[in-house]
Amino acid sequence: GESVGLHLPTLSVQEGDNSIINCAYSNSASDYFIWYKQESGKGPQFIIDIRSNMDKRQGQRVTVLLNKTVKHLSLQIAATQPGDSAVYFCAGRYIERKTSYDKVIFGPGTSLSVIP
Amino acid sequence: DTGVSQNPRHKITKRGQNVTFRCDPISEHNRLYWYRQTLGQGPEFLTYFQNEAQLEKSRLLSDRFSAERPKGSFSTLEIQRTEQGDSAMYLCASRQGLATGELFFGEGSRLTVL
Known about the structure:
Chain A is mainly beta. Helix content of chain A is 0%, strand content 56%. Chain A is built from no helices and 11 strands.
């Protein structure tokens, strides 16, 4: 079925180190995979997305890697800062071919704590 | 502020009461989505509008839940005869087209049912 899930529920990293957050998915029908950041009491905030026909995409201090062979997605954050402390969700977007109806399905999240 | 706006931000109600949440999407966005999020979980898809048409509803959306987007602009989500299990954050998101994977989320409406 449609599901996007995560390997680890929590991750602690030292400030300045790189962070890697992993995600496994089961449905290969996504056309986009997306990473969101959610701070306490706020709505999810878009970080970066990657089309399903790509392997890697880089943003500012973030890189997303997609391995379709093993259905694995990762988010790398370079030089992690205290402001990066949040819950990170991976998500997959699914579009119904005939109707163009779309929906984004989220995984359960990884809590990232940055140790000063 | 031209982002997605949700009201009220917090709602505390007694079991059995009806509640209504409002979402004002980004003005040019034709697609609007409602999600529900419980503590420690990712947002769960509830329903989707394209303009004023409600095109998909999750099985999570029981008959006590109804959503509307009467003029293709703002949307309301009503929960009738609330139950304690309805306590959650209700998130609204919008986008225009499908060119990217990005959804623009509001800050959510937190519902507590006593």
